[in-house]
Design brief:
Blueprint (H helix, E strand, L loop, with lengths): L2 H11 L14 H11 L2 E4 L2 E4 L9 E3 L5 H10 L10 H11 E2 L3 H10 L2 H8 L11
Parallel strand pairs: 3-4
Antiparallel strand pairs: 1-2, 2-3
Helix pairs in contact: 1-2, 3-5, 4-5
Length: 134
């Protein structure tokens, strides 16, 4: 989730009467959109979580977009047995179990397309080529 949007929902949901629920300059239409969107989220232990849905029946921590690459990379390469990496669909399924990341499929596809281990496996190369000398 965009960090600004994260902060908007967090502020709205953590309203305790001592601060304003909205950032200054928020229009009536924006307030309506915030109220509507915030229904999908809650705060647990100071972090924003996506509420359970039919497809995902548990609370999932919301990941800000700037944190997404490192989080997805950890899930992608965290496979028992060492160097093996999960493919796109398995990585997406693993991440979705615990986390909510907007645009997850695109992030995972980009990561795998740039993952040297995955590209070598796709090409049938089992070890990296030796460095070339110039």
């Amino acid at each position: 989730m965009d960090p600004h949007q994260y902060n908007i929902y967090y502020r709205y949901l953590s309203f305790n009467g001592t601060t304003t629920r909205y950032f200054p300059g928020t229009t009536k239409n924006q307030k309506s959109n915030i109220r509507s969107g915030a229904k999908k989220y809650t705060i647990v232990n100071g972090q924003l979580f996506r509420k359970p849905e039919e497809k995902n029946p548990q609370f999932r921590r919301v990941v800000k977009l700037d944190e997404a690459p490192s989080v997805i990379s950890t899930y992608h390469a965290d496979r028992p047995g060492g160097n093996s990496h999960w493919g796109r669909d398995k990585t997406i399924a693993k991440v979705k179990q615990d986390l909510y990341i907007q645009g997850l499929r695109g992030h995972v596809t980009g990561l795998i397309n740039n993952c040297q281990v995955c590209q070598m496996a796709r090409a049938g190369i089992t070890t990296p080529p030796p460095p070339t000398t110039i």
